[in-house]
Amino acid sequence: MENRSKFCNCDNFACPLHPTKHDNGCAPCIHKNLKLKEIPNCFFSLVNGSKDRSGDSFEFFASLVMKQKA
């Protein structure tokens, strides 16, 4: 199923919430991340050094962004 928007850059195809696995677009992923106070995988792809990250928390994302700015 190809249900990705043109801007989708998520490469975590194993995730059951990936837009290619259902007909609900990004909504299930966003819902899960808001509930868990995490950042979606697609945002991490914009930050260097995020492939080997140990978590998806707001704090971890912020630390990666700050490291990139330095």
Task: Explain the overall architecture.
This protein has 70 residues and is mainly α. The chain has one domain (19-69). Helices cover 37% and strands 0% of the residues. It is globular. The mean pLDDT is 88.
Short description:
This protein has one domain. Helices cover 37% and strands 0% of the residues. It has helices at 27-36, 41-44, 58-69.
Indicate the percent of residues in helices.
Answer: 25-40%
Strand content: under 5%
User: Structural class per helix/strand content?
Assistant: mainly alpha
Order of helix and strand elements from N to C terminus: HHH
Q: How many strand segments?
A: 0
Number of domain units:
1
Low-pLDDT stretches:
none
The biggest sheet, with number of strands, parallel, antiparallel or mixed sense and barrel status, is: none
The gross shape turns out to be globular
Q: Which descriptors would you attach to this protein?
A:
70 residues, mainly alpha, globular
Draw up the topology in text:
Layout: H1 27-36, H2 41-44, H3 58-69
